[in-house]
Design a protein that fits this description.
326 residues; alpha/beta; 7-stranded parallel sheet; 10 helices
């Protein structure tokens, strides 16, 4: 059985990836700084993320490591640049070096926010042009993979991630100026017959190519099984505005669209610097390499609805094993 380690396995994206991989027949272990009292259905290995050898010990027996862990206290990242650099770039370097020691593939979770927001359906070959510190840190992490694992390392850009937290009962936050938790926030509010304000304005990410958190895990399964490296865009086919996504959510979930209103975010919800207006990603090359079929926004919303109602992951993509050659 293929064994995969995940940093940040108790987080939103990492937890969904873990559950998706388990559902597809992988064995998952989480690398963490401390033990957890939460009921996690996979092994947790405690490592010292400041030491390459400790991380390498945690990766023994693993075929790949998916690096999801990030520090998301943005005020601290701004106020302590050395801490920010080490939390993102230094951490990615140590994880990759440790993976190289044990011959494990490194898979790095990046972001559509490495873009400047001036292009539409940006291709996988674009190195990015970040306009805020978060995007810059993620872009520097991408370069770590290119430098330290040029043949086997996989850079996986994601954006507009739909889903709900697998290891916590409540969502960590509601709508923000990106697309994270956007759909879940709409469903939660409209099911309670509450009005929902779809944010706009100059400092809001207005267009993205959303995906489903568990679907990201399913597509990563193909990267691991096919043993391919490079840059991949693990997103859906459709670039949508926030209001288009909100209306599509109402249609799929059977919600009252009249409860949707347009407005600007409160000042305390704004990101402390600019954000990309259009962060849409082209997935054409990714789909060709991984053999992934059509994936409309309706397909993804239907899969998320199934997850919302069942509590179980429901990725669209299924596992595809690498063909052995004689």
């Amino acid at each position: 059985m293929t064994k995969v380690a995940i940093t940040g396995s108790t987080g939103f994206v990492g937890g969904n990836i873990a559950q998706a991989l388990i559902s597809l027949g992988f064995e998952v272990v989480g690398l963490a700084r401390n033990t957890t009292s939460e009921n996690i259905p996979w092994e947790i290995r405690v490592v010292n993320f400041l030491e390459v050898n400790s991380i390498a010990t945690g990766l023994v027996g693993c075929d790949a490591v998916i690096h999801c862990a990030i520090h998301n206290d943005f005020n601290k990242l701004i106020n302590d640049r050395e801490f920010a650099y080490d939390s993102y770039v230094g951490m990615t370097s140590r994880v990759t070096r440790a993976a190289n020691q044990v011959n494990a593939q490194t898979i790095y979770i990046s972001s559509d926010w490495i873009l400047d927001g001036q292009s539409h359906y940006t291709e996988e070959t674009d190195p990015g042009n970040p306009i805020n510190f978060y995007g810059a840190l993620k872009a520097l992490g991408e370069q770590v993979i290119r430098d330290l694992a040029p043949q086997t390392g996989a850079i996986c850009r994601i954006g507009g991630v739909m889903g709900f937290h697998r290891t916590k009962k409540e969502m960590p936050r509601g709508q923000d100026v990106g697309f994270g938790y956007f759909v879940a926030s709409i469903v939660q509010n409209l099911q309670e017959q509450k009005e929902f304000v779809v944010w706009g304005g100059d400092r809001v990410n207005k267009i993205a190519t959303p995906s489903l958190a568990s679907e990201i895990g399913a597509q990563i399964s193909r990267i691991i099984d096919l043993k391919v490296g490079g840059t991949f865009h693990l997103v859906g086919d459709d670039a949508v505005t926030r209001m288009e996504l909100a209306l599509a959510t109402c249609e799929v979930f059977g919600l009252n669209k009249d409860l949707l209103k347009a407005g600007e975010p409160p000042q305390d919800a704004l990101f402390p610097s600019g954000v990309p207006v259009d962060s849409s990603l082209s997935n054409k090359k990714t789909k060709e390499i991984l053999g992934i079929g059509p994936m409309s926004i309706q397909d993804l919303l239907n899969a998320f609805k199934k997850e919302w109602e069942s509590g179980k992951v429901s990725p669209i993509t299924q596992r595809k094993m690498r063909k052995e050659t004689n």
